[in-house]
Amino acid sequence: MKPGIHPSYGPVVFRDKAADFAFLTRSTLTSDRTVAWEDGNTYPVVDVEISSASHPFYTGTARVLDTAGRVERFERRYGRGETR
C-alpha cells in the first residue's frame, strides 16, 4: 500500500439508539463524540439508524411479500407473453 493516502483504521463504537445496542469494531469512520466502553477505554462513537438489533430481517419481524400471487395475477390480467 502507498503510505500517506489511506485513512486511519482504528477502533470505533457503532451505537443504535433505537435498539439500545452498541458494538466495538474497527473502521475508517471517525467522530468528534466519544463514549466510555466496557473495558474502561474511550472510543469515538458513530450513531447509526439501523443495526442488526433493529433491522426487521435480523429480528424476525420481516414481512414476506406474496410475489407468487402477484405474478399469477399479472399473467391472468395480461396473459403470458411470447418468447422470441
Key structural traits:
about 80 residues; 4-stranded mixed sheet; elongated; ribosomal protein
Task: Summarize the topology.
Blueprint: E1 10-16, E2 21-27, E3 34-36, E4 42-48, H1 56-59, H2 67-78
Parallel strand pairs: 1-4
Antiparallel strand pairs: 1-2, 3-4
Pfam family, one: Ribosomal_L31
Family: Belongs to the bacterial ribosomal protein bL31 family. Type B subfamily.
Protein name: Large ribosomal subunit protein bL31B
Please summarize what this structure is:
With about 80 residues, the protein is α+β, with helices and mostly antiparallel strands.
Structure write-up:
With 84 residues, this protein is α+β, with helices and mostly antiparallel strands. The longest helix has 12 residues, at 67-78. The model has no long low-confidence stretch (mean pLDDT 83). A 4-stranded mixed β-sheet has the order 2-1-4-3, with no helix packed on it. The protein has helices at residues 56-59, 67-78, and strands spanning 10-16, 21-27, 34-36, 42-48. It starts with 9 loop residues before the first strand and ends in a 6-residue tail after the last helix. Helix content is 19%, strand content 29%.
Q: How many angstroms separate the termini?
A: 50 Å
| Low-pLDDT sequence parts | none
Globally, the shape reads: elongated
In N-to-C order, the SSE pattern is: EEEEHH
- Kindly report the average pLDDT value: 83
Oligomer: single chain
